[in-house]
Specification:
With about 250 residues, this protein is mainly β. The protein has one domain: Clam (outer membrane lipoprotein receptor (LolB), chain A), CATH 2.50.20. Helix content is about 15%, strand content about 45%. The strands form two sheets. A 14-stranded mixed sheet has the order 7-8-9-10-11-14-15-1-2-3-4-5-6-16. Strands 12-13 form a two-stranded antiparallel ribbon. A hairpin with a 5-residue loop joins strand 7 and strand 8. The longest helix is centred in the first third of the chain and has 11 residues. It is globular, with a radius of gyration of 18 Å.
Length: about 250
């Protein structure tokens, strides 16, 4: 069970969403700005102008996971600082089974059940996801924002869909009438892996929209899986703590 939870942690931080928001003041952050002279499509510019903004963000996600051999549910509590930290506490049957912390340089995991800890650089993330996403891109996926450079997206032969490539990874997005992303496809063109993410039930929070539910279907040569996320308690308040202490009783894992 817990091996699939650890795998799912890396999957979810690339493709997820949440639901209800506590009313508070949002600190505005700069929009994504293209860094080349290549023109940006008007539709993509509208998506950027409607992107989700925050300095700090916390939320709780109830997760249903299913593959050929497993059907399980657990809870993930997220805390994030823009461009800096993603902190996740994973609980099952009322107990914390794992804790994860992403910063700009590393990924750290505590296995509460096995009393082990793991420290990886972003080469490990690249191995797990098939692409070397940085922490900002991971956060953009968590908040249903564009992950690649906006000027790299081009039209395809399907209405309201746009495509961008970075390395061997292709990202196809579908845009709704409010210029929010309704579906994302991430596929590794060499390894033949694909994740299709559908964002639904967008809720208005202050002057922004955020997806209420996310369904993720992943296809790989070795395994297919489905994840449904239903989240709550979205909060923009400043976060003072991202606790991650490693007990001397824990053994370092590989």
């Amino acid at each position: 069970m817990y091996k699939s939870i650890y795998f799912l942690t890396f999957l979810i931080i690339t493709i997820t969403s949440c639901r209800t928001v506590k009313k508070t003041t949002i600190k505005k952050t700069p929009k994504i700005v293209a860094d080349t002279t290549k023109p940006m499509l008007a539709q993509i510019k509208n998506v950027i102008n409607n992107s989700f903004e925050y300095d700090y963000l916390s939320f709780k996600s109830n997760c249903d996971y299913k593959d050929e051999n497993t059907d399980q549910s657990f809870t993930m509590n997220f805390r994030m600082k823009k461009d800096s930290i993603i902190w996740i506490s994973i609980t099952a049957v009322g107990f914390e089974v794992a804790r994860v912390k992403f910063d700009k340089d590393s990924v750290k995991i505590l296995n509460r059940i096995g009393k082990k800890y793991y420290i990886y650089d972003y080469n490990y993330v690249k191995k797990m996801l098939g692409t070397s996403l940085n922490i900002t891109q991971i956060q953009n996926l968590l908040t249903a924002n564009i992950i690649f450079k906006p000027e790299n997206y081009s039209t395809i032969n399907i209405e309201n869909r746009y495509r961008a490539n970075e390395g061997y990874v292709e990202n196809i997005i579908e845009i709704d009438k409010k210029y929010k992303i309704s579906e994302q496809i991430l596929q590794h063109l060499v390894e033949k892996t694909q994740a299709t993410v559908v964002y639904t039930n967008y809720k208005k929070t202050e002057d922004q929209f955020f997806p209420g539910e996310t369904e993720i279907n992943v296809t790989t040569p070795a395994k297919n899986l489905k994840i449904v996320l239903r989240s709550s308690n979205l909060n923009y308040s400043d976060i003072e703590s991202f606790p991650f202490e490693i007990s001397s009783k824990y053994e370092k894992g590989n």
